[in-house]
Design goal:
The complex is a heterodimer of chains A (333) and B (352).
Chain A (H helix, E strand, L loop, with lengths): L2 H8 L5 E12 L2 E13 L4 E5 L6 H8 L7 E10 L2 E2 L5 H7 L4 E4 L13 H10 L6 H14 L5 H5 L8 H13 L5 E5 L7 H18 L2 E6 L2 H7 L2 E6 L2 E7 H6 L4 H9 L47 E2 L5 E2 L9
Parallel strand pairs in A: 3-8, 3-9, 6-7, 7-8
Antiparallel strand pairs in A: 1-2, 1-4, 4-5, 9-10, 10-12, 11-12
Helix pairs in contact in A: 4-5, 5-7
Chain B lengths: L3 E13 L4 H8 L8 E13 L3 E5 L6 H9 L6 E6 L2 E2 L14 E4 L13 H11 L5 H14 L16 H13 L5 E5 L7 H18 L2 E6 L2 H7 L2 E6 L2 E7 H6 L4 H9 L42 H5 L5 E3 L3 E3 L2 H4 L19
Parallel strand pairs in B: 3-8, 3-9, 6-7, 7-8
Antiparallel strand pairs in B: 1-2, 1-4, 4-5, 9-10, 10-12, 11-12
Helix pairs in contact in B: 3-4, 3-5, 4-5, 5-6
The chains are: A alpha/beta (333), B alpha/beta (352).
Amino acid sequence: MTAQAMTAQAMPAPVLEVRGLRTHFFTRDGVVKAVDGVDLSVARGRVLGLVGESGSGKTVTGLSLIGLIDAPGRIVEGSVRLAGQELIGLAPDELRRVRGRRIAMIFQDPMMTLNPVLKVGTQLSMALRAHERIAAAEVRRRSVAALGRVGLPSPEQCLDAYPHQLSGGMRQRVAIAIAMLHRPDVIIADEPTTALDVSIQGQILHEMQSLAAETGVALVWITHDLAVVSSLAHEIAVMYAGRVVEHGAADEVLSAPRHPYTRGLLESVPGEAAPGGKLLQIPGSIPALVDLPPGCAFRARCPRADALCEAMPEIVGDGLGRAIRCHHPLEAA
Amino acid sequence: MSAPLMELRGVSKRFVRRLSLGDRMAAKLGAAVETREVRAVEDVSLAIVAGETLGLVGESGCGKSTLGRVAAGILPPTTGEALLDGQPVMSRGMNPRKLTTRVQTVFQDPFASLNPRRRIGDTIAEGPIAHRLVGRAGAEAYVAEWLGRVGMDPGYAGRYPHQFSGGQRQRIAIARALAMRPDLLICDEPVASLDVSIQAQVLNLFLELRRALNLTCLFISHDLGVVRHVSDRVAIMYLGRIVELGPTQAIYADPKHPYTQALLTSVPRLKRRRDVDRHDFRPIAGELPSPLAPPSGCHFHPRCPAANDTCRRIYPAHTALAGDRMVACHLHAAKDGAGLGASGLPKAVAAP
């Protein structure tokens, strides 16, 4: 059974469905296959954790979903369906009507979202008026409500502040408020708490959790931090070298990983091993994505690799809601 | 515990904005010129015993890196002193200078801490040659030995930093520091910029070398999981002050300071059991205050669920607790466990 069939049966009507997504960058040094065949789906009110290390293609996947890939990059192949509507191949102005209204993105650095020379209120109003014709009073009312909803203490004052007058956590809250303005179907969050302090990260995770549950928005949470996904995500997709290598319910994947890479990642995290003890480590480093050799990209670092791994494994469902891309998966728990 | 190897006595570090020529002239003419002062570290006393690893944990801006730099003799303390075996790490006076090479530092960013225009072998050999740990003739073999010890091919000595990945560079930075044969190694967020799988490699290397060389370390990190894994004792910092100190196991099992408690519950931890509830964050309320204008009294009181009137007015004295622990909190001051020989720990210091 394929991953598609598997995830379709595991979840009710996904609002975002990604099939066979390939995003390649055509550089002077060769073709960088940053995303090379990714299948994902998320249902309303659910959180999908997209986990990977740097260079695994998780951010490029996120940018591809929202149509923000610039030259020399290009979506070579694949389908992204948002509530039934195909986004790949949409004309730029059609895409603009979808982006920000029905699918939004939050970035790691809120200053990527916010314009440093405009007041917060101006930016909220621009975002609102990009998709709706509304009166000034209504703009203000909705802006204040949006800022209040993300836990900013004094939304009225915040409207008149410039981004540099806010702390990192408050800026990220403003970015989240902008993403939530039009009550989108899907929000893609790319490491939104990585740059924040732990106590502020806790607050934001807490709020995103309740926002997703209350508003029914589907979240794609891109992160390298397994601890964050373990407390937030319903499902997890683990990426390695541009491909999803394991996909399933978060608790299942974390408690009984079946791909050797997932297991290696989990056991690398301090806190699992006895203090002072040796951590299980994955030897070697992440391969460069230019001219990847054929076959499983993880095989050079994998303890289970053999001759079979010189052929790329397909991602295969186990019939129990898990999909694994490996010739020699670990036993199911 | 024996006598401390490194002792910080009442160390404070303040940064003052340097006045421009115009400001100085205006000040001479009697104008009120704003001189804002950042109190990065405020009255910190700490002792590190030979052979132990002390973890220093805090959020950004709490002064943990500044404290590390004072201990390393990179920054002179504004008041107080940093002593290694009873000798100051820096000279006093107008232009204080680092006196000892016995404290070495591994920095967070291995892209910034290695000179991009030098071969890594030269970077590693420079200090030992300058300080006569090794002669020029023996330098090559010495570098090869240290590269081997950090798990790298000795043949890489002729390469430049850009030819290495982040994890490899951090190994080189560790080799550079250890080649000086330091008594105290200060690690300032050594794995924060590395990917998880690489982080585990570097942590394993660190643990291995620590055992083999019997290193004494000050391990600075914001990552509670990492600190728990490597440290014997932990000091928790908040806005320039140590709020709690004690053996790692005890602090993680039973944190006493409300900030430590909040920190431990608000940090997402990897949960691998199926039965745990996903929705169990208890985030700390409020923002991290600016060290330019720390709150009155206990700096944590605006965010503390248990704050009372005393907390708003007076900074709590350090209270020694059973089991070689210390906490700076009014909630615990009442049940002062007097007469506990807190050996190796700083004496309870009353803050002004």
